[in-house]
Amino acid sequence: MAEKTLNVFEIARTQVKNACDKLGADPAVYEILKNPMRVMEVSFPVKMDDGTTKSFTGYRAQHNNACGPFKGGIRFHPAVNIDEVKALSTWMTFKCGVVGIPYGGGKGGMAIDPRDYSKAELERISRGFAASIAPIIGEKEDIPAPDVNTNGQIMSWMLDEYSKVTGQFQPGVFTGKPVDFYGSLARTEATGYGVAKMAMLAAKKLNLDLDNITVALQGCGNVGSFAGTYIEEFGAKVVIVGDHTGTIRNNKGIDMKSLVEYVKIHGGIKGFSGAEPTEENVLTAEVDILMPCALENQLTSVTAKDVKAKFICEGANGPTTPEADKIFFEKGLTLVPDILANSGGVTVSYFEWVQNLMRYNWTFEEVQEKQEKLMNKAFEEIWDLAKEFNVDMRTAAYMMSIKRIADAMKIRGWYTESPKEALATE
Ligand SMILES: NC(=O)C1=CN([C@@H]2O[C@H](COP(=O)(O)OP(=O)(O)OC[C@H]3O[C@@H](n4cnc5c(N)ncnc54)[C@H](O)[C@@H]3O)[C@@H](O)[C@H]2O)C=CC1
Ligand SMILES: O=C(O)CCC(=O)C(=O)O
């Protein structure tokens, strides 16, 4: 069956609806969760290096804050649009619920390619965006972080601008900052580390031969580079990597540390001498683990049929369509979903925020240990729930998370179980 839609907001809603139905949730729960609570669109002027002025547009979506302040990254990518930001904010709500951290979901973005601008222009654009969304963000309201094409430097410019606009220094209003400027040790590594850890847990559950695991990796940015480096450290061989510049293969295993250094200098994997260029599709390579760590809608009904990996562990947000999920479930192919597999980033952002509020720093090991504890617990719970309800891990993850969020919404009085219950309390 071909895709009903590739609109990621529609896809996010389908995922939430499916899980609400499986859970037998009160209709009010989906009614509340189907839309973000607030979406802000901003436009602001920026002076370019050549003296001209250009207007930029950006978005910040705040999906749900029943469990705590909105939380989620800011993306700079030409494909950003309002529906994508709404979808990404929706996924953040359920991701925070999966690991049980006290946040709701938010996400922001601008449809730009940062490579089109000088560093000085990028700084002015980042500052302009931060100043424009300043009225709705805050250390206790909405806490942005890096996502695709944004990083610690951009978070630092935004924090500095926010401080100027509000006249207050609140380092916890942005996370993913550099360690030398109120960042947390182990945040940069966190998302990829978590993806690799979740993949190894799944490999054990599926009784794979842990000494001979092969991996296909899509994306070699923040998430992909650490997912690949850590899984190599855990004993696996990354044999094929693809990114926006091409695909490379080395059956003996690609040396991930060298590849990551190469990407830092060259901006992509193309031309890396430790592997051969290939025309293969990284998503359908014959490997044990497929780790999509790039963008949405990569695994569709077309590609899903040809996936040969023994299981999938999603580093990216939304790389799989509902139709592809169905194909995987029918094939008996396990998929560790984004809202669990890549939850390490927001988990360590939470630890960064806690350290900021306390003005205290934990060691690298302390942070990673705390991350692992939360994620391992979530993995085990979701694994068991999927078996109990005979559903895929994505549905189980949403079911677990929706239950937590629904409980918080009910206690807050956002809905009552049924009209009868409402009358009984009058
Ligand atoms: N950075 C973080 O902490 C988190 C990121 N994510 C998600 O992980 C994914 C990747 O994010 P980051 O690594 O932070 O971004 P990034 O900007 O550091 O890297 C993006 C990667 O995707 C690749 N890519 C872009 N277009 C592609 C294409 N058409 N085909 C193949 N590869 C392509 C790029 O070459 C690059 O390697 C996104 O879905 C993001 O939302 C999820 C959780 C946290
Ligand atoms: O670190 C964070 O707060 C959010 C990371 C993020 O944007 C994501 O998990 O998709």
TrEMBL record:
Q: Which residues form the Glutamate/phenylalanine/leucine/valine/L-tryptophan dehydrogenase C-terminal domain?
A: 184-413
Q: Which UniProt keywords apply?
A: NAD, Nucleotide-binding, Oxidoreductase
One GO biological process term is: L-glutamate catabolic process
* Source domain of life: Bacteria
Specify the species.
Romboutsia maritimum
Q: What is this protein called?
A: Glutamate dehydrogenase
Residues where NAD(+) binds: T191, N222
Give site residues, Important for catalysis: D147
**Similarity comment: family membership:** Belongs to the Glu/Leu/Phe/Val dehydrogenases family.
Pfam families named among the record's database cross-references: ELFV_dehydrog, ELFV_dehydrog_N
